[in-house]
């Protein structure tokens, strides 16, 4: 189980990570990551103009430099409630092992895709590691942890 301080719980935090963060798609899941420096300051948008400062609707609800926080999205497309909860439990377990390797203050959203329903923990762990490495959040030399 993830500690309460390591969980994303508010929809506005999920929205912030998905809209302003970077993403990496894998066969069974999509990893969205927002670093603390991306969440605070203005940055270029698609037109090249600067984005306005983060307001109350887009600012994280807690200080982002406190700890790395993770949230999960497992939609009904993945399967029945039993299957969705099994996928979410596996992803929580895998992310718990990877939290110490992530930079402090990073916000992560892991979105499960329908093929995640039939995937083993090892396959989910491999996709999770590949997504984090692609986003350059996880060091490529660090061996995967928590993969069975």
Order of helices and strands: HEEHEHEH
Unreliable segments of 5+ consecutive residues: 43-56, 61-65
Number of domains: 1
Strand order of the largest sheet: 1-2-4-3
Strand content: 5-15%
Q: Characterize the overall form.
A: globular
From the 3D structure, determine the CATH topology. Answer: Ribosomal Protein S5, domain 2
Please tell me the CATH architecture by its name.
2-Layer Sandwich
Overall SS class: alpha+beta
Which sheet architecture does the biggest sheet show?
4 strands, mixed
CATH class (first level) name = Alpha Beta
Description:
The protein has one domain (4-37, 63-134): Ribosomal Protein S5, domain 2. The model is unreliable at 43-56 and 61-65 (pLDDT under 50). Helix content is 32%, strand content 15%. The chain is an alpha+beta fold and 148 residues long. α3 packs across α4.
List the helices and strands and how they pair.
Layout: H1 11-20, E1 22-25, E2 29-34, H2 36-40, E3 69-74, H3 81-98, E4 107-112, H4 121-134
Helix pairs in contact: 3-4
Question: Which tags fit this structure?
Answer:
single chain; alpha+beta; Ribosomal Protein S5, domain 2; four-stranded mixed sheet; 32% helix; globular; 3'-tRNA processing endoribonuclease activity; tRNA binding; EC 3.1.26.5; Ribsml_uS5_D2-typ_fold_subgr
Characterize this entry briefly:
The protein is α+β, with helices and mostly antiparallel strands and 148 residues long. It has helices at residues 11-20, 36-40, 81-98, 121-134, and strands spanning 22-25, 29-34, 69-74, 107-112. Helix 3 crosses helix 4 (121-134).
